[in-house]
């Protein structure tokens, strides 16, 4: 394992008994004792395990020899903070034998959203007396261990293939609630209004899946329809007091999804309960801890009156994603973090599959193409991308592969393979895989073997390049009468493919429609660098029909133009895919921006939310690069308004009862787009509504889906008032998603003095000493910094602040490498010149970038691509807009 920095293998753990006591909820410390039962498989004078920000007090080892046992003690510990390890040294060699290792330790309940940590919140109802609080906040406690933060909470062998069973107990105030992976086994009073809560033994599992929480919790409960071991399974959504009713939408989904996956995988959900916990501060969307899944608030809570309707969709999907992990990831776990994609790519695909099963009217696969697949293609088009299966050496490396390659490219290639084999055959193969490796670890090859068995197809031969090689192909099409020639080559968003970049030949399923004597779609495949398809209909053909496969198609310009006039023959997925391809091809120089806009022009009669979303996303990208030129900016605004005019005239401002989900989303997107681009009627109405709302919020409440459109128009036209109103609303947070909505709009402010004097201090204040009402919490930093970075006025001001105050930024988010990595990604990727690139390189030259080096390289690649695009297309874009009457 030369490419992995792993623990020595002297001792193999089988079971942990972990007891936490003396939780000091003023100084945020606790005491712990962990007894690890296992085997010394080699004689050794030391035990090396993972520990980070823990103080080990004493160690005792009981070694079994025959019927007797011998004890050895030590308080000789060596810490390697960089490697996140502790070594326990003994005076004598410990023999090969069964053993118990007992460690007394002390730890901190941190505020870094990693390990065992505290979350601050404003209570929605009066809290239990013992709940810790200060002048501004109340606190709850929970854990986040993936990928390598169990070691922050207790000393352990913290690698995914070092599985064990766990007993867990925690001493808590008697008026609070403790949760863990398994049901409560026992509760015993201890001292002074405290009790020790013990939980049943877990199945064999990885350390990163252990979880616990302590807080002023209440719950709503439902049961599965199916029976498990003769009983309907209890499913609960836990929240801090006063919020449980907002868990009902998630609660409707969770039992149905458990039943759906139990049947699909032909394998019952393996635990006796399924709990969901809403956590007030959280790095990601959710975490799949076995039996106790934890969530960011907006990923699990929904207020029917106050929440944006897009969260209906988000919550359904995230619940499905995390529950898919209960089998794929928890029951069967990847062997090492280089195969993280296997966990996350599969759960992403299965999450959309289950959501589609419960909500076929939502059309979630077009949504995935527009949002997920497109995101993956854009990241994977960078020279600095990485293969799906990527070498991971240590903890800092691991954090950086929780990215769109692992999740979204992983999902895309799984979707491509499932489409090729047939979804039912694919699921049958997954079932074989799960039944073959329960409670253990498995590599990608084991999944391929099971899928080959189920399908009779040589899956490894098809998938090897997709998993092990970087990037994806662009198919360049050349036409002759009655035939086309297709050539595959590596796609790079910078357009500068060198021979050494282009050595992979992928298996490329073509999903071809348009043979002269054939109806429907043919499952042809390109398995060489180049091939010819004969008997092609010269009038109409489509490659990658319904976009099941992961690549770009570069049609000849005249064909792209013709497809724009044949929209009735294209599916929703086709329109999204062709638009996304045309945009990426323009960006990279394979195509042009005029060719992209000419195709998009043809969509002006379109009213499908996802198709218009893709078109508007593509225009937004163009605007973000070329809008420094006023003529171009105004031309793109006029182009956008003309594109949406037809659909906008149909939607209005009201949300009729019983309206379908996508129609509501379309209204919001169209009003938002119209307002941003200066539509007079929408601007007037939005300002009228904002004025009424800001003067008396209770009497003039805005529909939840109208907040963003109305606030954006207000920010554009009256930034002083809008900033004041939105900062107040952000702090008061009348809805669970209020903070997200307000931060998103604040990031669009284009008043330099407000950005400099109000928003940047608000973003980077370290709290304390800053009051909570004037400091964005670290977990939400990306929401405002990403908005400011996307804003051409704010971008240079944000960068200036970063370069002058890097120490302050590190102080605010440096304790959690995931947050630093995300901040770099969202804050630096929107620059548009080579000069900006030089400044970024110069600034980070003498900084320690270990925690975000992959992301920094990807960010620089994005800037390179944007700068090249701007230089190449600025003049022809402006000329096209003028010639076509937009500017």
Automatic annotation (TrEMBL):
Residues 15-209 form the Aminopeptidase N-like N-terminal domain. Its cofactor is Zn(2+). Its EC number is 3.4.11.-. GO terms for cellular component: cytoplasm; membrane. The active site is at 322 (proton acceptor). InterPro entries: Aminopeptidase_N-like_N, Aminopeptidase_N-like_N_sf, ERAP1-like_C_dom, M1_APN-typ, Peptidase_M1, Peptidase_M1_aminopeptidases, Peptidase_M1_dom, Peptidase_M4/M1_CTD_sf. Residues 540-864 form the ERAP1-like C-terminal domain. The record marks 407 as: Transition state stabilizer. This is Aminopeptidase.
């Amino acid at each position: 394992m030369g490419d992995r920095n792993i623990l020595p293998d002297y001792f193999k753990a089988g079971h942990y008994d972990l007891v936490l006591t003396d939780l000091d909820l003023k100084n945020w410390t606790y005491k712990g004792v962990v007894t690890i039962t296992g085997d010394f498989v080699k004689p050794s004078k030391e035990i090396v395990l993972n520990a980070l920000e823990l103080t080990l007090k004493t160690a005792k080892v009981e070694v079994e020899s025959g019927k007797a046992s011998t004890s050895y003690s030590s308080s000789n510990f060596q810490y390697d903070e960089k490697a996140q390890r502790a070594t326990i040294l003994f005076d004598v060699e410990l023999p090969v034998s069964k053993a118990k290792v007992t460690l007394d330790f002390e730890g901190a309940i941190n505020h870094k959203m990693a390990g065992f940590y505290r979350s601050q919140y404003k209570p929605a109802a009066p809290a239990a007396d013992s709940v810790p609080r200060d002048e501004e906040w109340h606190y709850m406690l929970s854990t986040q261990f993936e990928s390598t933060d169990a070691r922050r909470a207790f000393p352990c062998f913290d690698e995914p293939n070092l599985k064990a069973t766990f007993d867990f107990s925690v001493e808590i105030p008697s008026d609070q609630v403790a949760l863990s992976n398994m049901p409560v086994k026992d509760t015993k009073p201890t001292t002074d209004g405290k009790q020790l809560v013990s939980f049943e033994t877990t199945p064999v599992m990885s350390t990163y899946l252990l979880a616990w929480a302590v807080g002023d919790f209440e719950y709503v409960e439902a049961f599965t329809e199916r029976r498990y071991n003769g009983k309907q399974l209890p499913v609960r959504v836990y929240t801090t007091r006063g919020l449980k009713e907002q868990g009902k939408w998630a609660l409707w989904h969770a039992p149905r999804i458990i039943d759906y996956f139990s049947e699909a995988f032909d394998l019952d959900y393996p635990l006796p309960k399924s709990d969901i916990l809403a956590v007030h501060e959280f790095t990601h969307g959710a975490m799949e801890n076995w039996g106790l899944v934890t969530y960011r608030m907006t990923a699990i809570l929904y207020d029917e009156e106050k929440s944006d309707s897009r969260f209906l969709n988000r919550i359904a999907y995230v619940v499905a994603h995390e529950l898919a992990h209960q089998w794929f990831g928890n029951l069967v776990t990847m062997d090492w973090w280089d195969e993280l994609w296997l966990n996350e790519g599969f759960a992403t695909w299965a999450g959309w599959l289950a959501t589609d099963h419960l909500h076929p009217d939502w059309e979630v696969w077009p949504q995935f193409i527009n949002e997920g697949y497109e995101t993956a293609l854009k990241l994977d088009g960078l020279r600095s991308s990485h293969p799906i299966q990527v070498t991971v050496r240590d903890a800092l490396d691991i954090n950086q592969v929780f990215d769109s390659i692992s999740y979204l490219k992983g999902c895309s290639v799984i979707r491509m393979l499932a489409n090729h084999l047939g979804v039912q055959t694919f699921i049958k193969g997954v079932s074989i895989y799960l039944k073959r490796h329960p409670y253990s670890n498995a590599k990608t090859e084991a999944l391929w073997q099971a899928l080959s068995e189920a399908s009779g197809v040589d899956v490894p031969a098809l998938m090897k390049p997709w998993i092990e090689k970087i990037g994806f192909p662009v198919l360049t099409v050349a036409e002759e009468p009655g035939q086309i020639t297709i050539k595959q080559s590596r796609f790079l968003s910078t357009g500068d493919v060198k021979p050494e970049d282009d050595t992979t030949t992928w298996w490329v399923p073509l999903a071809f429609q348009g043979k002269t004597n054939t109806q429907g779609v043919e499952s042809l495949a390109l398995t060489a660098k180049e091939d010819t398809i004969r008997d092609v209909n010269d009038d109409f053909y489509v490659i990658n029909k319904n976009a099941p496969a992961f690549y770009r198609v570069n049609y000849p310009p005249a064909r792209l133009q013709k497809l724009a006039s044949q929209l009735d023959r294209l599916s929703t997925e086709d329109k999204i895919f062709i638009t996304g391809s045309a945009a990426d091809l323009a960006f990279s120089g394979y195509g042009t921006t005029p060719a992209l806009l000419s195709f998009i022009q043809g969509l002006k009669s379109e009213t499908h939310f996802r198709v218009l979303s893709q078109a508007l996303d593509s225009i937004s990208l163009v605007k973000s690069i070329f809008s420094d030129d006023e003529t171009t900016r105004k031309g793109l605004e006029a182009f956008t308004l003309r594109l949406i005019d037809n659909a906008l005239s149909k939607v209005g401002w009201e949300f009729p009862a019983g309206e379908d989900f996508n129609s509501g989303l379309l209204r919001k997107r169209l009003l938002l787009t119209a307002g941003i681009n200066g539509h007079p009627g929408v601007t007037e109405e939005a300002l009228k509504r904002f004025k009424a709302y800001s003067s008396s919020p209770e009497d003039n409440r805005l529909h939840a889906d109208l907040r963003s459109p109305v606030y954006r128009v207000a920010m554009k036209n009256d930034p002083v008032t809008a900033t004041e109103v939105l900062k107040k609303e952000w702090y008061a947070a009348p809805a669970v998603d209020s903070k997200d909505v307000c931060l998103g709009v604040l990031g669009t402010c284009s008043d330099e003095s407000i950005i400099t004097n109000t928003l940047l201090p608000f973003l980077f204040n370290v709290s304390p000493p800053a009051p909570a009402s004037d400091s964005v919490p670290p977990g939400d930093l990306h929401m405002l910094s990403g908005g400011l970075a996307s804003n051409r006025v704010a971008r240079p001001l944000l960068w200036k602040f970063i370069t002058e105050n890097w120490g302050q930024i590190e102080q605010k988010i440096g304790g959690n490498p995931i947050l630093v990595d995300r901040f770099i990604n969202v804050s630096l990727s929107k620059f548009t010149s080579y000069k900006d690139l030089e400044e970024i390189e110069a600034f980070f030259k003498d900084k320690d970038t270990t925690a975000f080096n992959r992301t920094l390289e990807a960010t620089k690649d994005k800037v390179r691509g944007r700068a090249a695009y701007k230089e190449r297309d600025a003049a022809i874009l402006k000329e096209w807009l003028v010639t076509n009457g937009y500017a």
